[in-house]
Design a protein that fits this description.
Layout lengths: L3 H30 L3 H5 L18 H20 L1
Helix pairs in contact: 1-3
Protein backbone atom coordinates (compact mmCIF):
# COMPACT_ATOMS: atom_id res chain seq x y z
CA UNK A 1 0.00 0.00 0.00
CA UNK A 2 1.27 3.47 -0.84
CA UNK A 3 2.09 5.87 1.94
CA UNK A 4 0.29 9.18 2.26
CA UNK A 5 3.41 11.09 1.20
CA UNK A 6 3.75 8.98 -1.96
CA UNK A 7 0.09 9.54 -2.80
CA UNK A 8 0.47 13.28 -2.25
CA UNK A 9 3.61 13.41 -4.41
CA UNK A 10 1.95 11.45 -7.21
CA UNK A 11 -1.14 13.66 -7.08
CA UNK A 12 1.02 16.79 -7.18
CA UNK A 13 2.99 15.41 -10.17
CA UNK A 14 -0.23 14.50 -12.00
CA UNK A 15 -1.73 17.93 -11.33
CA UNK A 16 1.43 19.70 -12.52
CA UNK A 17 1.52 17.60 -15.68
CA UNK A 18 -2.16 18.32 -16.31
CA UNK A 19 -1.88 22.06 -15.62
CA UNK A 20 1.36 22.70 -17.50
CA UNK A 21 1.18 20.09 -20.25
CA UNK A 22 -2.36 19.15 -21.10
CA UNK A 23 -4.36 22.32 -20.43
CA UNK A 24 -2.31 24.60 -22.74
CA UNK A 25 -2.41 21.94 -25.48
CA UNK A 26 -6.16 21.49 -25.05
CA UNK A 27 -6.76 25.24 -25.24
CA UNK A 28 -4.70 25.65 -28.40
CA UNK A 29 -6.28 22.59 -30.00
CA UNK A 30 -9.79 23.87 -29.25
CA UNK A 31 -8.83 27.24 -30.76
CA UNK A 32 -7.52 25.55 -33.91
CA UNK A 33 -10.54 23.30 -34.11
CA UNK A 34 -12.93 26.25 -34.04
CA UNK A 35 -10.95 28.80 -36.05
CA UNK A 36 -12.94 31.21 -38.15
CA UNK A 37 -11.90 31.10 -41.82
CA UNK A 38 -12.48 34.85 -42.17
CA UNK A 39 -10.07 35.38 -39.30
CA UNK A 40 -7.49 33.18 -41.04
CA UNK A 41 -7.77 35.18 -44.25
CA UNK A 42 -6.89 38.35 -42.33
CA UNK A 43 -3.57 36.95 -41.08
CA UNK A 44 -0.55 38.22 -42.96
CA UNK A 45 1.76 35.59 -44.35
CA UNK A 46 5.24 35.62 -42.82
CA UNK A 47 8.19 36.94 -44.76
CA UNK A 48 10.43 34.18 -46.10
CA UNK A 49 13.09 33.44 -43.52
CA UNK A 50 11.19 35.29 -40.82
CA UNK A 51 10.28 33.62 -37.58
CA UNK A 52 7.03 33.83 -35.73
CA UNK A 53 7.26 35.62 -32.41
CA UNK A 54 5.45 33.08 -30.27
CA UNK A 55 6.44 32.89 -26.64
CA UNK A 56 7.56 29.43 -25.59
CA UNK A 57 6.94 28.31 -22.05
CA UNK A 58 9.60 26.13 -20.51
CA UNK A 59 8.31 22.66 -19.82
CA UNK A 60 11.14 21.66 -17.51
CA UNK A 61 8.85 21.66 -14.46
CA UNK A 62 6.35 19.52 -16.32
CA UNK A 63 9.01 17.04 -17.44
CA UNK A 64 10.47 16.95 -13.93
CA UNK A 65 7.03 16.14 -12.48
CA UNK A 66 6.47 13.38 -15.03
CA UNK A 67 9.94 11.95 -14.43
CA UNK A 68 9.51 11.90 -10.64
CA UNK A 69 6.09 10.28 -11.05
CA UNK A 70 7.62 7.58 -13.26
CA UNK A 71 10.47 7.02 -10.82
CA UNK A 72 8.05 6.68 -7.91
CA UNK A 73 5.92 4.24 -9.86
CA UNK A 74 8.99 2.17 -10.79
CA UNK A 75 10.27 2.08 -7.20
CA UNK A 76 6.81 1.12 -5.95
CA UNK A 77 6.54 -1.84 -8.33
CA UNK A 78 10.10 -2.98 -7.75
CA UNK A 79 9.44 -3.31 -4.00
CA UNK A 80 6.48 -5.63 -4.56
Amino acid sequence: MKSASENAALQKARQTLYDEGFVPFRDVFQRLKHVDLVELAAIERPIVGGRAKVPCRPLSACWQAARSCSEMRRSFWSVR
